[in-house]
Amino acid sequence: MPSLLHIDASIRRTGSVSRELSAHFATQWRQNHADGGYSYRDLATQPIPHITHAVREALLDPSGEHGVPPEERALTETLTAELREATTLLLGIPMYNYSIPSTIKAWVDRLVTPAHMVAPSGDPGLLSGKSVVVVTARGGSYAPGTPREGWDYQEPYLRAVLHSIGLADNLTFVHAELTLAATVPQMAPLKPLAEQSLAAAYETLKTLAL
Ligand SMILES: Cc1cc2nc3c(=O)[nH]c(=O)nc-3n(C[C@H](O)[C@H](O)[C@H](O)COP(=O)(O)O)c2cc1C
């Protein structure tokens, strides 16, 4: 059965472009997969605690005793089960300081485990075969030819880490850029470009949700 795991991370409750776009995808996907499963996690309202040494040891050796508090162990197991059960993973991610929110990093740190790693021998790992859609919202633009081309540490990082756990077989990034043009007076001339970027993101997500 198809199943969508939908994760948001914007610290904004309202006015969040990444939340609006990920919700758009989820709505379309659920309409197109009426019998599909759906689970949602909000990493901003329910942040995952930073990984500890004990949790890391338990991830490396799940059978051992590492003094991990039961609630920490249960959380890791829940996150792992959510990801394994999904056939499509949807990440709604704002750009913070050229990279991902730390809440997403805390989620990643619990899931990059030996059980999920793609082996150099070619074993694709337990998570291979899933569709992954990463929707980002960023205040500026990082497109080729822009002054900050090369400053995007979101997409290259996520490509690498998702690849390492077998989540890059069918991985698509959708960026809504220049979101700050709506509110920063100096960026007002960029509003038409921002609107184009947003419209293109909505259009792409509609197609991806089929
Ligand atoms: C803490 C913080 C750091 C940010 N850093 C960047 C940045 O490095 N580059 C950028 O283009 N925009 C940056 N922004 C702007 C956000 O990326 C932009 O507002 C985006 O739309 C946020 O996603 P959201 O609309 O889903 O909340 C930052 C915003 C915040 C709150």
Quick overview:
With about 210 residues, the protein is an alpha/beta fold.
Give an account of the 3D structure:
The chain is of the alpha/beta class. It has one domain (3-208): 3-Layer(aba) Sandwich (Rossmann fold), CATH 3.40.50.360. It has helices at 17-32, 53-60, 70-85, 102-111, 155-164, 191-208, and strands spanning 3-8, 37-42, 88-94, 131-137, 170-176. It has a five-stranded parallel β-sheet with strand order 2-1-3-4-5, with helices on both faces. Strand 4, helix 5 (155-164) and strand 5 (170-176) form a beta-alpha-beta unit. Helix 1 packs parallel to helix 6. The chain is globular, with a radius of gyration of 18 Å. 33% of the residues are buried. Bound molecules: flavin mononucleotide (FMN). Flavin mononucleotide is lined by residues 10, 12, 16-19, 94-98, 137-140, 179-180.
- The percentage helix is 25-40%
Structural class: alpha/beta
| Name of the CATH homologous superfamily | Flavodoxin domain
Number of domains: 1
Shape: globular
Instruction: Compute the separation of the termini in Å.
Output: 15 Å
- From the alpha carbons, calculate the radius of gyration and give it in angstroms: 18 Å
* Number of helices, counting only DSSP H or I runs of 4 residues or more: 6
The major beta sheet can be summarized as: 5 strands, parallel
**Count the strands?**
5
- SSE order in H/E notation? EHEHHEHEHEH
Name of the CATH class = Alpha Beta
